[in-house]
Amino acid sequence: MSSLISRHHPLASSAEQLRIINQPGGHQRPFEEALEASGLHPLQATHIEFFQINVGKLCNQTCRHCHVDAGPDRTEVMTRATAELCMEKLAATDIPTVDITGGAPELNPNFRYLVTESKRLGRHVMDRCNLTILTVSSQENLADFLAGHQVEIVASLPYFTAEQTDAQRGEKVFEKSIRAIEMLNRLGYGRPDTGLVLDLVYNPVGAFLPPEQHAIEADFRRELKNRWGVVFNNLYTITNMPISRFLEFLIQSGNYDRYMNKLIGAYNPQAAAGVMCRSLLSIGWDGSLYDCDFNQMIGLTVNHGAPTHIRDFDYAALKQRRIVTGQHCFGCTAGAGSSCGGATA
After folding, report:
1. Residue among 220, 207, 215 nearest 249 (CA)
2. In this structure, are residues 96 and 202 in contact, taking their beta carbons and an 8 Å threshold?
3. 152-156 and 124-129 beta bridge pairing
4. What is the dihedral of CA 272, 273, 275, 276, to 10 degrees?
């Protein structure tokens, strides 16, 4: 297979990605210029609703679009000491939601500690799940654990057919994903009045923007129910960001300039006003602080005087910090917008 699923592809370096993203070219209307025209520069955080913890890059899958460059051979994993520090700092705030992501976050040995401790602190917990992890033999009681702690599951599913899903995520991934959803449905996930929320996430397979969120959600709901008898609560659309493996795909396929021009041409001030970084703080596997998971993957820590590591956590400063932006931010502000919770406009 191509180097798209190789751990050691040529764009693994954060510095190299930033050089390519910010190089001069026909697509380079500066993102800051777009913000200025929208009356949003400098972009500021408004509050922190989501305490997002990325526990590392270890994953049981190696997806073609993965902005984390995750896979089975990755060794970046959050330690217990860092996990405990995250919970210590969280306890001193009123941040309502803990959003745990990876990699496959469930593979981190501290995943269940983070869930149980967050729930003990009275916080809502979200698990960014790839679904297939629920079918791995070492995780046979994972679904019961998630249901028992009323964890909201936000699960990636590129499409409602095997061909398109497997093309993006690997052979037999769709079959395993449907089996996982069936398992979750039996526990009450995706069903009304159970309190067990199952959300799906749609990423386009190619170099184009996602369709209108409500329309594709209706298609997913109908087709998954009719073909497989499975249900879910909400579907979120997320634009593929021009970083990591997807950046490499764009360059190798000759689509990079076209895709960047598409994102820039579709810039939406309303989407920019609602970007997730204004209400989210992202914590890396080593405790470094970022404005979002995308900035984390290209090494852009918080800046402009805000603390850059969880050990120096300053709630007052972080919830009104200036956001670090760049050309990749056009990905979150194109069309209806894109965030961890789907469209923003």
Report:
1. 207
2. no
3. parallel
4. 170
User: Could you tell me which residues come within 8 angstroms of residue 287 by beta carbon, excluding any fewer than 6 positions away?
Assistant: 78, 82, 85, 86, 309, 310, 311
Which sign does the torsion angle of CA 255, 261, 266, 270 carry?
A: positive
Residue 218 CB partners (closer than 8 Å, separation 6+): none
Position 14 confidence tier, pLDDT thresholds 50, 70, 90:
confident
**Does a structural domain hold residue 95?**
yes
Q: Is the pTM of this model over 0.85?
A: yes
pLDDT exceeds 90 at position 115? yes
| pLDDT of 79 over the 50 cut | yes
Residues spanned by the domain of 272:
3-333
Is residue 289 domain-resident? yes
DSSP sequence for 69-85: --BTT---B--HHHHHH
In a domain, residue 344? The reply is no
Residue 231 lies in a domain: yes
| The dihedral sign for the CA sequence 35, 315, 337, 15 | positive
Q: How many domains does the chain have?
A: 1
List the structure tokens of 75: 């060794």
User: For the domain that residue 178 is a member of, what is the CATH number?
Assistant: 3.20.20.70
pLDDT of residue 25: 60
